[in-house]
Amino acid sequence: MVSRALPNKTATTKLAADLAPLLAGGDLLLLEGPLGAGKTFFTRALARALGLVTDARVTSPTFTLVQEYDTEPPLVHADLYRLSDDERGVFELGLIGQRDDGALLVVEWGLPFARVLGGDALVMKLVRQPRGASFSATGPRSARLLEALARIPADSE
Ligand SMILES: Nc1ncnc2c1ncn2[C@@H]1O[C@H](COP(=O)(O)OP(=O)(O)O)[C@@H](O)[C@H]1O
Ligand SMILES: [Mg+2]
């Protein structure tokens, strides 16, 4: 288990910047944690760390379900909150196909659908009081990501 304290938004942005160069197309990142924990904020920071210009409009996908960002690798951001137990509905979004095509898949509320999303997920669990994140891995690729992240000191520049 890798953990980070996220006392302010700068710390969350720093975590996204640390993770960005480790991630590759085809990776799956699942974001867990209650509403307001910072899942969407983190995804925006990650998109920017992957080359999306700061001024680009990056909206919450809560009402659009899936948004694709012009980053390298392309980032596909989904929020499955409203599909809470609709496995078929999630499958029909076609996310696993985009992952196979080389997208980095970042999914809020995706843990129940890890299998439908292709498995081997880096799971980031955000908590609010105090703010922080802890990571776990569900397969060999995500385990390597976890190891690489563990090697980066939380306060490195
Ligand atoms: N350390 C922090 N990390 C992330 N967000 C933070 C932090 N401190 C305050 N916030 C605020 O908390 C809110 C998180 O909202 P959001 O990212 O939409 O949460 P979620 O997607 O988990 O529901 C944002 O308004 C953000 O500005
Ligand atoms: Mg959100």
Can you summarize this structure?
The chain has 157 residues and is α/β, with parallel strands linked by helices.
Topology overview:
Elements: E1 2-5, H1 9-19, E2 28-32, H2 39-49, E3 66-69, E4 75-79, H3 87-92, H4 95-100, E5 104-108, E6 121-128, E7 131-137, H5 140-150
Parallel strand pairs: 2-5, 2-6, 4-5
Antiparallel strand pairs: 1-7, 3-4, 6-7
Major sheet: order of its strands? 1-7-6-2-5-4-3
Q: Rounded to an integer, what's the Rg over CA atoms?
A: 14 Å
Mind telling me the CATH superfamily name? Answer: P-loop containing nucleotide triphosphate hydrolases
User: Helical percent range?
Assistant: 25-40%
Percentage of residues in DSSP E strands: 15-25%
CATH topology: Rossmann fold
Which CATH class is shown? Alpha Beta
Could you tell me the mean pLDDT? Answer: 92
Question: How many strands in all?
Answer: 7
Distance between the termini: 22 Å
The largest β sheet comes out as:
7 strands, mixed
Shape label? globular
Total domain units: 1
CATH architectural name: 3-Layer(aba) Sandwich
Secondary structural class: alpha/beta
Task: Please work out how many helical segments DSSP would assign.
Answer: 5
> Order of SSEs, N→C?
EHEHEEHHEEEH
